[in-house]
Amino acid sequence: MIQETLTDKPETDKQPERLKSLDALRGFDMFWIMGGENIFILLGSITGLPALQWWAGQMSHVEWHGFHTYDMIFPLFLFIAGVSFPFSAAKRMQGENGRMSLYRHIFKRGILLVLIGIIYNNGISFDFENMRYASVLGRIGLAWMFAALIFMNTK
Predict the structure, then answer these.
(1) Are 106 and 149 in contact (CB under 8 A)?
(2) Where are the beta strands (DSSP E) in 11-129?
(3) CA-CA distance, 128 to 115, in Å (whole number)?
(4) Is residue 77 within 8 Å of 140, Cβ to Cβ?
(5) What is the pTM of this model?
(6) Is residue 89 scored above 70 in pLDDT?
(7) What are the residue ranges spanned by the domains of the chain?
């Protein structure tokens, strides 16, 4: 009797199943964000294989015009953040204060990402002439916040 109570979990504690394809795509994107391109650049230079050298070339930014595979890493991350929002929103809506709690979370997260981006780009030094406001984190924060607000108000 006691053993059954300790090992059996109630149905409410069950974690919902994750969308594995979205997790796999997120992992793929994070691999490139964390520097996965360096592996292919190194392999291309060591082996001299044309396919690896071509892929290594795809893993660099084009200066002002043109398009490489590398240029899709950031948009893919934004896409993943947008696609995953409805899943997390559904969980938050079930809690206490559902909708208001979700709005607070949206604004808090958006503003926090913008502030972290400013701090990362030398915002603490208060050198306003050389400070970069438009950071990648700031763009993610604003894009996610506005997309979440649109989602919340057009359902």
Answers:
(1) yes
(2) none
(3) 15
(4) yes
(5) 0.71
(6) yes
(7) 1-71, 95-155
